[in-house]
Structures are given as C-alpha cells and as structure tokens.
UniProtKB/TrEMBL annotation:
Molecular function GO labels: molybdate ion binding
Any GO BP annotation: molybdate ion transport
Protein name, as recorded: ABC transporter substrate-binding protein
Organism: Borborobacter arsenicus
Annotated InterPro entries: ModA/WtpA (IPR050682)
Cross-referenced SUPFAM superfamilies: Periplasmic binding protein-like II (SSF53850)
Amino acid sequence: MPDALKVMSTLAVALALKRSILFAWEASGRKVDMQWNPTGVLVERVRGGERADVIISIDEPTLALAGEGVLSVSTIRPLARAGFGLAVRAGAPRPDISSPETFKAALLASRAIAYSLTGASGLHLQEVARALGIADEVEARAVTIPAGFTAEKLISGEADLAVQQISELMSVEGVDIVGPFPAVWQKHTDFSAAAFCEARRPAEALAFIDHLASPASMQAYANAGLAPRAAGTSS
C-alpha cells in the first residue's frame, strides 16, 4: 500500500487496534499498512535497516532506538501495559493459578504448553520455570512458535495451555482466559509509540500517534485486556 502510513507494531496491542482504533482512523479515508511482529523481531528488522513511519513496541527498545537516532525522542508516547497470563480452549477446565503453588501444579498437570520463542512471555515463562525448579518438565511439554499467537495451538489441539500477554491470548477466538500469572511471578510490559526520524509521512505519523494516545484509544486498550497508560504517567 504505497499511499498508506506504514506502522510496525507489537502483537500485544493488535486486538485493541483491530477492534476499534484502526477503524476510527481509517473511517476518514486514511490508510494504514500494519506490520505485526513480537518486539524482538521488530527490533531485528529495524536494526537490519528496515524503516516505517511509526513503531509500537516495548519501552526499553523504543528508548534504545531513539538513543541510536532511529526514532524521534520527542514523539514517544506511552500507550498501554500488559501482563502475562494463561489460556485454555473454550469450555475446557480452567486450572487454579491464583498462587505460586497452584500455578506450578497447573504447568505440571498440562499435556502441552504453547509459548513463543521470540516473545517476552515465552522468555519469562522459562525464567519462572527455572525458579520453580521445573524447567525440564516445562521444556518437555513445550509447543513453541517463532512468532504469532500461542492460543492458536489450543484451537489446533496441539496444546492445552497457552502462555502469552493476556491481550494476545484474547486475540484468538475460541479460547478462555484462565487468568494472570500469580503476583509474585507476574511481570508487566509497557508499550509506547514513536515516529521514525526517517518517516516518509512525518505529519501523519504524529497525528496517528496522537490518535493512539487519545482517550478513546485508552478505553480500547482497557477493553482488550491492557492497562491504559495516560501521557505523563510513569511506567
């Protein structure tokens, strides 16, 4: 789409954007070419020389790319915060994961656990499994994906538990959210938007970022399993 604004985005905000945020933007005739990937993949693409108009990613790499002169520091806007959770296929029993003990038991009782090799959730699950002393058991049950939505493995029947950001789990129809990780093992991830210094459409990029940070968009994040981050709030 040569006449469209090019946006590289993390999967964590996909549900909110697809449900309403992009619809509201494109209702005025403006087009957006969305490129969806885990943040790690996005950063690799950018460091490999790829450019867009806007990026939506985890705060840390956003700030790093701004420090490298790739993104415009003045355009960075906080958007939303995500937490990790578990999901099962719709109608399947939902294990109790409210405490560290029951969370561990649920992982050990599962037949197969789907997680992403490149996403923050998969890396964090492996850290938690090591801390719980069940790294080998979790690895033996692993159904890994290079990118995308882990809950799709629930629909295919390849896994009976899926791990990812709750907003990403909600992006797949036909699954039930079991709940968030127990507080002691929870790790929140903050996402922000920024314009590329080499944006082809700088004015439109800034307008799109303002739209992403608008009150209506904040409500869309909340409806999609994310915690909105108002401009000026701390992470």
